[in-house]
Design goal:
Blueprint lengths: L14 H27 L1 H8 L3 H8 L1 H20 L2 H19 L5 H15 L2 H12 L6 H29 L5 E3 L3 E3 L1 H11 L1 H11 L23 H10 L1 H31 L5 H32 L5 H19 L6 H27 L7 H17 L2 H13 L5 H30 L3
Antiparallel strand pairs: 1-2
């Protein structure tokens, strides 16, 4: 018995406590995604106030966030593997909430860039630590569904950011400035960032009381060698990754392309509805925000449920298989935007895109957590976030913007840019993930 999937004793924590912890972590990530996504709804007023181009906005949505998010995920993940994951999450939460509020005071492209980088630095600690904790709470065969529930935070958080942002814009409509207690008069988009950032304070206090660190458990039989101080060396972690490099290289590269396509879609869809289909910003926030939540929850839950069912029947590579096929549906819905001129149909297609995107995001993490030893889970998660964040999430929005500005030279062709980028990225992604699937099957030595 020397395969990565050999049977080991699962964690003995109660199902009730396991699910409560998972939901608490999911709600924490929800708050992070609210802070992260608010910018996507406020593109037009920010562009007008700071005199930005689509490419500059694409950098703020992508590189400014993902470069720091991805780069810091690895060292913070290493810290989470060696110390208290609860403390890592609480520190991260306090940092990103403060910088989100500070975004409301940005006066230039540079200060906006620095604020986005600061939010990214704070949020970089959440997913590596949370994924490691969740993997300790559930046996291997049932991990896909809780990971899907955790990643539902993406859709709830992003959808709430759009919904609340749209609601606030609607409340502030016709008012050149808004009175914010203790801060005075602010333009609506600035007030939105300040208010959303301050929401993190009460949740920080709740996490301090309610979140408990689970006992670390092992899903694999891979033996890691500790140094004299009892910690794992970087060389030991690198040795694990190199030993199974075929799977990890294919998985990371394939999902980098998938997330580049996905991030481009999600970053620019609210702007497409506003710019191309002439929907009011507050209506986009409410309607697309609600569609984002409902379609995202449905897609993430269905993907996790199907993966658990298939895994229980012996199809252990199921998370990877489902995650690689779902973007095809998202691409079809995005391409459909080229064929419609009705805002309602456009909104339905955007919701369909989110539905098919959801399984890809949730199951990509479950696939590598299944084969990763406990004491390197957060570090491998951090490495995954670094690669996919910098090269995938960071480049997706700017690729679409550069096609709009450089190829079509027409802001009204934004939906054509999105479809063109999606076709190319999806065509490159599928054969790479098929290779990763083959490598994952070989890990079991069946």
């Amino acid at each position: 018995m020397n395969g990565l999937f050999d049977r080991v004793r699962p964690d003995d924590a109660s199902a009730w406590r396991a699910w409560c912890t998972t939901i608490l972590l999911a709600l924490t990530a929800t708050l992070a995604y609210i802070d992260r996504t608010l910018l996507n709804l406020l593109v037009e007023p920010i562009k007008a106030d700071l005199s930005l181009s689509d490419t500059q906005v694409g950098v703020l949505q992508g590189v400014a966030f993902s470069l720091f998010y991805g780069t810091l995920s690895v060292p913070i993940g290493r810290l989470a593997d060696a110390t208290s994951r609860k403390r890592v999450i609480m520190t991260a939460m306090l940092a990103w909430s403060a910088v989100t509020a500070a975004t409301g005071f940005a006066t230039s492209y540079l200060t906006m860039f620095l604020c986005r980088a600061g939010v990214a630095a704070g949020e970089a600690g959440v997913s590596p630590a949370s994924g490691s904790m969740i993997a300790d709470l559930f046996p291997r065969a049932r991990l896909a569904l809780p990971m899907s529930v955790y990643t539902m935070s993406i859709y709830v958080g992003s959808g709430l950011a759009l919904f609340l942002g749209g609601w606030m814009i609607g409340q502030f409509e016709g008012q050149p400035t808004v009175a914010v207690p203790l801060l005075g008069e602010m333009v609506p988009w600035r007030a939105s960032f300040v208010i959303v950032g301050l929401l993190g304070i009460p949740w920080f206090l709740l996490i301090g009381v309610a979140l408990r660190e689970p006992r670390r458990t092992e899903h694999t039989t891979y033996q890691l060698q500790r140094n004299a101080e009892g910690s794992l060396s970087i060389r030991e972690v690198a040795g694990f990754l190199l030993r199974y490099r075929s799977f990890f290289a294919g998985h990371f590269l394939g999902f980098t392309l998938a997330l580049a396509m996905i991030s481009g879609m999600l970053a620019w869809m609210p702007t497409i509805l506003i710019r191309v289909f002439s929907m009011p910003i507050e209506e986009v926030g409410r309607a697309f925000g609600l569609a984002y939540i409902l379609c995202g929850l449905a897609g993430a839950f269905l993907g996790g449920w199907c993966s658990n069912r298939l895994s229980a029947r012996g199809r252990r590579q199921a998370p990877l298989e489902l995650a690689m096929l779902a973007p095809l549906g998202a691409l079809a819905c995005t391409a459909g935007l080229l064929l419609v001129d009705d805002p309602t149909l456009a909104l339905a297609l955007c919701g369909g895109t989110v539905f098919f995107i959801a399984p890809t995001i949730s199951l990509s993490a479950a696939a590598y957590l299944l084969v990763t030893p406990n004491r390197v889970r957060a570090q491998v998660s951090g490495l995954f976030l670094m690669v996919t964040g910098v090269l995938g999430i960071g480049t997706g929005p700017i690729i679409v913007a550069m096609i709009t500005d450089g190829v079509f030279a027409d802001e009204g062709m934004l939906h054509y840019s999105l479809a063109a980028a999606g076709v190319v990225l999806c065509a490159c992604m599928l054969p790479i993930l098929a290779y990763a699937r083959k490598a994952m099957m070989a890990l079991d030595l069946w």
